[in-house]
Design a protein that fits this description.
The longest helix is centred in the middle third of the chain and has 18 residues. The chain is mainly alpha-helical. It has a domain of 75 residues: Crustacean CHH/MIH/GIH neurohormone. It has 5 helices and no strands. α2 packs antiparallel against α3, α2 packs across α5 and α3 crosses α4. Keywords: Disulfide bond, Hormone, Membrane, Neuropeptide, Secreted, Transmembrane, Transmembrane helix. GO terms for molecular function: neuropeptide hormone activity. It is found in: Secreted. This is Vitellogenesis-inhibiting hormone.
Length: 123
């Protein structure tokens, strides 16, 4: 991660207090420009995936199995596929079907293990 320090020098004739809104706006624009192209995850917790007790601390596993459902929705172009694939913490037949549809049958045992870890809350 890179840290960028920006110093803005304002001529003395313009020395007026900058409002908080302007400061927040400048900060937001700066952060948006710095993070462009980087995947910065948002904070989330157990309540965001109530079926999966093991999501916290296992973000890498969650991202792995979640990608299966996202890719599956892109393949089938059905708005319900992703939610059905994720339901019951990736332990429905939709999840298995998506793995097969994405031609990942050789990794099915790994994905099922990841899903069971997320469901049980252990690693």
């Amino acid at each position: 991660m890179y840290v960028v320090v920006v110093e803005i020098k304002i001529p003395k004739m313009y020395h007026k207090p900058i409002s908080s809104i302007v400061k927040i706006l400048l900060f937001t624009v700066l952060m948006a420009s710095l993070s462009e192209g980087y995947n910065i995850p948002l904070a989330w917790g157990r309540r965001d995936m109530p079926d999966c007790l093991g999501v916290l601390g296992n973000r890498d596993l969650y991202d792995d199995v979640s990608r299966i459902c996202s890719d599956c929705q892109n393949v089938f172009r059905d708005k319900n596929v992703e939610s059905k694939c994720r339901s019951d913490c990736f332990s429905t037949s939709y999840f298995e079907t998506c793995i097969m549809a994405l031609d990942l049958a050789e990794k099915i045992s790994d994905y099922k293990l990841h899903a069971s870890i997320l469901k049980e809350g252990k690693k």
